[in-house]
């Protein structure tokens, strides 16, 4: 009997809501490989003989692939999650494996630029499928904790680059300048993780008992503390690795500690699934003798299930009407109600959000993708590249979890610190980070990496929170991928056209002056990125101004408490 009960609990665990969330954590932790592009970009540039503008073109197509995800959202609307995850795994393996073979020179002829761009586009676009499968199904399964879910899941993406750095170092300790194996790791690891959890990720209805909701909040706090512990360890590890020479064995030990810390959330999963089983058994024994109690979010009162249902219908007749009248035509829809794609596209609020995202996030991504070349131009040592990438990754994680959890706190709601207003503050904070890069003060790249990483991470949950708050939750799978689609516009203008061209112009001037014609363009000095990052600072300030306009336009809407993030929205949560 004991063995049968243990087997039953194991099957319940593997099919449970919390194990599904743990699988989403691991998928997201392996699905942020674009952030580590700066580590192996120098190999692409050197082995394929690219100029900085050509390398930035490759980076642009990577950014295009990692942000254009409307098709993934549309597929997710009509297919089960395992289809999304399987497509992503195949694309990831195919795209990055072909990139590795090209950089390693395994083909008879050198791959042309357009083909390398295609490889990295396919590989990066696979991450959209992983994000959509993991994030959307987790939001649907935990509708009462969307801010925490967005912060945690996006936070794990932020840690992805630092995790990859620790895992590949044991294989490259004696050849720190050779990053081809990192590309191979990026090809196999995310695909393998997605396939392991391909049957686990799905929508699992949340329990209705109030005690389950209280436990849910405490569990998310524990998961937050565990992820913070991993971030702190990664920070300590990169500081030690920067100051002390590690051999392969020591790097392997560090990687082993990271893997153990990735397994720690299973403790919370086991605890919560055991508690959920007990709560369900208790509720079944009492279901015939009393009605289930629910909490009214607006009043804080306990009501019976029929009363709550009646109250919910009475409080939100307008949203029900909107859903029945929804059509494909872009007819005006009030803020907070369900918008389809066309209705969202013609909204002034969406246009402001997209413009601020394109310029603000596009500028930050330019810094992230060029951190390797910035390091080289300012004279930092070669092995510091992993340090800078890890700093960006860890502080990106801190930005994601801080804002993800912050938008649900009482302090934020009490002072009406709306998501658009927080977006304005974050974008404004990024401007000094860009100026630190532009002026190249000795040692300033370390704080610049932290500031830019934090601000980039903070924008991610804010964008994902603003979209359902203003445009509803019914089409969240598609609209959540629609927002980031404009990021490549900003990176093309600021990364390829501005940073790439200005870098090559300065590199050409130095090459002529030093009689180095014909060699790969390498620029040294503060002037390499000064002008381009001054342009990026101005563009980011303009993005902050657009976010301020959006905050002003939506102030009364938020003050009236009409957002969908903290409430049921008349049944929309159940339909997402």
Automatic annotation (TrEMBL):
Topology in the lipid bilayer:
Multi-pass membrane protein
Q: Where in the cell is it found?
A: Membrane
Pfam family example for this protein? Nodulin-like
State the UniProt keywords alphabetically. Answer: Membrane, Transmembrane, Transmembrane helix
Q: Which SUPFAM superfamilies match?
A: MFS general substrate transporter
NFD4 C-terminal domain sequence ranges: 350-559
Residue stretches spanning the membrane: 20-40, 82-101, 113-136, 148-169, 181-201, 222-240, 252-270, 351-372, 384-407, 419-439, 445-467, 533-555
Q: Report the residue ranges that make up the Nodulin-like domain in this protein.
A: 17-269
Give the record's GO CC terms. Answer: membrane
* Superkingdom in the source lineage: Eukaryota
Name the record gives this protein: Nodulin-like domain-containing protein
Query: What organism does the UniProt record list as the source?
Result: Urochloa decumbens
The root-end lineage is: Eukaryota, Viridiplantae, Streptophyta, Embryophyta, Tracheophyta
